[in-house]
């Protein structure tokens, strides 16, 4: 415990400095780079929030787009009635209530049934909003016009990202987080040792979903125009899962290793292959599951373990230098042996020229 506390104290100041540097980036980046940073921060926060629940309990959730869309539509519906910061608070409350209801209904099931329900929830929310827009508001989308530029969006997303990492850090060191890890390993054992499994799942699920809802609310002004297909896009849920699996769920910083390369890959695929984007993304997902079952974090852990294994150096630290020197000496000795050049240095060139001349101008017979 003391070692862990000391490590936290050592890592604290550099992390604070890193956050301060990141907070200054909007004034140093171009418009395109700032737009890319918004995209990256939003997915990083969503992925950390997803891993907070699914990474510990091992329940794969595809409901990310449902809560992301709820946050977006809350802002779209209330933007003319309330200040934006107050709308964010309302969105967090709505996300918490929805997560509480959904969690009470669904967290007693597991496996593929929970996956299917999460995807079904996102689709149900999308279709419900399509019906509402067409039949009640007689439109198909809403404009979000508010004095909230990209710099402000960036700062809010950075704050949410720091909050998500801090919540994940504290959760993994709390009794609630340890209980969730036990549930992920074996739910039956968790019940037998006295863990309140429904409460643990529900508490972490609500926290995760509130963060996802806030990301959607903060990103609403970025889109400007919102419709159900944008807000409740199922691709968001799948991308978050792919990023989390690519980075690895064993470490809190694992999602960083998944978000960065996939955001870069997504930008490239959308520009170069816009009509094949979804298919190529699916192929990437299958490759990750097959070749990187533990993500990039697993590769780093394996490499670190290999470097930490005992090693034998029969010839000491300088043996390979002596071997290299002996090899150079042998090569030099071979190059230094006497050689005979019958035609001198120009003989081979003259011989080649004569052969070419005979081929082009045959001798007369």
Key words describing this protein structure:
about 375 residues; 2 strands; about 0% strand; 16 helices; mainly alpha; single chain; elongated
Separation of the first and last Cα atoms: 100 Å
- With helices defined by DSSP (H or I, 4 residues minimum), what is the helix count? 16
Structural class: mainly alpha
Strand content: under 5%
* Overall number of domains: 2
Overall residue-averaged pLDDT value: 82
Order of helices and strands: HHHHHEHHHHEHHHHHHH
How would you sum up the global shape?
elongated
The largest beta-sheet arranges its strands as: 1-2
Write down how many β-strands occur, each being a DSSP E stretch of 2 or more residues.
2
Low-confidence stretches: none
Biggest sheet record: 2 strands, antiparallel
Q: How large is the radius of gyration? A: 30 Å
């Amino acid at each position: 415990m003391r070692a862990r506390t000391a490590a936290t104290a050592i890592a604290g100041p550099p992390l604070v400095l890193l956050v301060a540097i990141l907070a200054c980036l909007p004034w140093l980046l171009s418009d395109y780079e700032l737009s890319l940073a918004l995209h990256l921060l939003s997915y990083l926060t969503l992925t950390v929030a997803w891993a907070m629940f699914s990474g510990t309990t091992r329940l794969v959730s595809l409901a990310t787009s449902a809560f992301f869309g709820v946050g977006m539509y809350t802002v779209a519906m209330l933007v003319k009635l309330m200040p934006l910061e107050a709308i964010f608070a309302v969105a967090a409350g709505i996300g918490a209530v929805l997560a509480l209801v959904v969690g009470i209904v669904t967290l007693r099931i597991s496996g593929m049934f929970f996956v299917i329900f999460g995807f079904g929830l996102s689709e149900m929310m999308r279709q419900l909003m399509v019906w509402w827009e067409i039949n009640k508001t007689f439109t198909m989308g809403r404009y979000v016009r508010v004095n909230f530029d990209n710099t402000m969006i960036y700062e809010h997303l950075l704050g949410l990202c720091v909050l998500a990492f801090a919540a994940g850090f504290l959760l993994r060191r709390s009794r609630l987080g340890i209980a969730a890890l036990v549930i992920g390993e074996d739910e039956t054992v968790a019940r037998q040792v006295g863990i309140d499994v429904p409460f643990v799942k529900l508490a972490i699920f609500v926290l995760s979903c509130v963060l996802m809802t806030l990301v959607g609310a903060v990103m609403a002004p970025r889109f400007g125009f919102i419709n159900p297909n944008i807000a409740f896009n199922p691709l968001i849920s799948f991308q978050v899962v792919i990023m989390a699996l690519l980075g690895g769920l064993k470490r809190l910083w694992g999602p960083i290793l998944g978000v960065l390369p996939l955001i870069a890959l997504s930008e490239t695929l959308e520009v170069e292959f816009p009509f094949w984007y979804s298919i190529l993304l699916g192929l990437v997902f299958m490759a990750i599951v097959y070749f990187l079952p533990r993500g990039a974090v697993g590769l780093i852990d394996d490499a670190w373990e290999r470097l930490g294994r005992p090693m034998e150096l029969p010839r000491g630290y300088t043996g390979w230098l002596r071997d290299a020197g002996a090899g150079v000496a042998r090569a030099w000795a071979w190059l230094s042996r006497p050689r005979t050049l019958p035609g001198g240095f120009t003989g081979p060139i003259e011989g080649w020229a004569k052969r070419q001349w005979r081929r082009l101008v045959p001798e007369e017979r």
